[in-house]
Amino acid sequence: MLTIKSIRETNPVILNVANMVTPQHVADAINFYGGSPIMFTDEREAAGLTNISSGVVFNMGSTNEATLRNVIASGKVANKRGIPVVIDPVAIGATELRQDNFARAAEAVAFDVIRGNAGEIAYLANVNWQANGIDAGNGDGDVVAIAKKAAHRYHCWVVLSGVKDIVTDGETTYCVDNGHPYFQTNVGSGDMLDGILATAIATEHGLKALVRATATFSIAGELAGEKYPNQPASFFVELYNQLATITDEVIDTRMKIHQV
Q1: Among 77, 97, 113, 149, who pairs with 125 as Cys (CB 3.0-4.6 Å)?
Q2: Which family does this protein fall into (predicted)?
Q3: How many domains are there within the chain?
Q4: 141 is in an annotated binding site
């Protein structure tokens, strides 16, 4: 079973093609959770940095040709070496450019994990959903069915973030009931979870590791919210404190998951 102790003992190096808005948030989350983050923006060092990494994260929130080249160059090396790949299709329903870039990335790189909100995963599952930029938006679909459909389509694990998080391989599916509303208030929370997930499966490659990592991040949010119930900015800082100090005993006690 994945443990905080094993993550911190392993201290996996996690390489990131980051969204221009949140690289510091992501680096701090990975570091406090127990990994070692690296960001890169130059395709010329993609192979070298991927080769020393234990996991990679591709955030498609700052879409441009250079970012796509970085994703493909690093992803090909990661696939060849068996290094797990996490991708976040940020606001993919918003523009054709984001859709085309994700499609080009998916054609060149096999993903281990796709992490997104309901609107993003619904787009990938070809389900109608009224997404609104980076926000999940609204839809009538069954989020469990949507996550499973996306997992089958891309042959990977899917983590659908929301009030309740869905983690699935298309066959076995878990619901994580932990969390806090301030995750939606603070931009970058999902990007931080991307890094947490990569750190987890770089340590132990499996669906249950993703479930526990998702729950751990959500529990850290619950604890931060208990300390700052009416201060969303203070919540965000406290979230880092909780990630840095959370124990497996606390996770085991507070974790609310069930198979669906």
Answers
A1: 149
A2: Belongs to the Thz kinase family.
A3: 1
A4: no
